[in-house]
Design goal:
Dbl Homology Domain, Chain A; 2 domains; alpha+beta
Length: 304
């Protein structure tokens, strides 16, 4: 008799989970443990830096090795009497939120490994030594570190497939559908963590370009748009180059610095978005002009 389709997918889930736990073992028990030992004894790299490189990989490894994989194995051994995995995956799903921290830290971790490999030859040698071992399968540390980032989307795909292949009256249908919904929410949670990290990173770059003015640096601000603009001077009918940063709560009217030491712009005026009005002008001499008026003052500007 041919195996039912849903059992094949459940078996694929089990097999990929076994391979995944081996990869996590390599990251946590080999790379992390040996680099940490090196940091403690030889002091070639600070312990804190090694911790930052591996984020919460130990918790992720323990969860999969000691809980999820054994539960899956039990299920597959008992499949003929109890063909279901939906309830086990429901138990797994909330814990996958742990991945948010790992995923958020991933780019920073890879940067640290690159930077310290250049800075500390003993650190680089130890990584190269571990990478030569058979267990690494000729792949780099960075390659292995990518695996947890890709694992949740993999669960989502396998489970989608599983639900699709389940017979309509399968005792696992309700649980499997609920599990899929939960995994989908966790994937969203992890993507949101990445998006938030990128937003803060981009915001910080903007603050550096503005010279880190105290009253402007705020993590809750959102940059909406930025770009060059011409300021029209009605007194002598001329224009001068300025630059605007529009945030959710303020408009920064800036002057590009000629000598860019540190900051790229100097903030000339900060206008609150609350109560601000924008009005287009029909000016034949200066096309594409508009008025921005706020509590602080009114500006006549010309776009490209």
């Amino acid at each position: 008799m041919q195996e039912p389709e849903e059992k094949k997918i459940a078996l694929e889930l089990l097999e990929t989970e076994q391979a995944y736990v081996n990869r996590l073992y390599l990251l946590d028990q080999v790379f992390y443990t040996e680099l940490m030992k090196e940091a403690k004894t030889a002091k070639t790299v600070p312990e804190e830096v090694v911790k930052m490189m591996f984020s919460n990989i130990s918790s992720i490894y323990q969860f999969h090795a000691e809980f999820f994989l054994p539960e899956l194995q039990k299920r597959m051994e008992d499949w003929n009497h109890n063909p279901r995995i939906g309830d086990v995956i429901q138990k797994l799903a909330p814990f996958l939120k742990m991945y948010g921290e790992y995923v958020k830290n991933f780019d920073k971790a890879v940067e640290l490994i690159t930077a310290w490999s250049e800075k500390s030859p003993p650190f680089q040698e130890l990584i190269a030594d571990i990478q030569k071992r058979k267990v690494c399968a000729n792949l780099t540390l960075q390659h292995h570190m990518l695996e947890p980032v890709q694992r949740i989307p993999r669960y989502e795909l396998l489970l989608k497939d599983y639900v699709r292949k389940l017979p309509p009256r399968s005792p696992d249908r309700g649980d499997a559908e609920k599990a899929l919904e939960m995994i989908f929410m966790v994937a969203k949670h992890s993507n949101a963590a990445i998006a938030e990290m990128e937003r803060l990173q981009n915001l910080w770059v903007v603050y550096q370009r503005l010279g880190l003015e105290d009253d402007i640096v705020d993590p809750s601000n959102e940059l909406i748009k930025e770009g060059p603009i011409q300021k029209i001077s009605t007194r002598n009918n001329s224009t001068s180059e300025k630059y605007l940063f529009l945030f959710n709560n303020m408009l920064l009217y800036c002057v590009p610095k000629v000598i860019q030491v540190g900051a790229e712009f100097q903030v000339h005026l900060r206008m609150d978005v609350g109560g601000m009005k924008v009005r287009e002008l029909k000016d034949t001499e200066f096309p594409h002009t508009f008025l921005v008026s706020g509590k602080q003052r009114t500006l006549e500007l010309q776009a490209r």
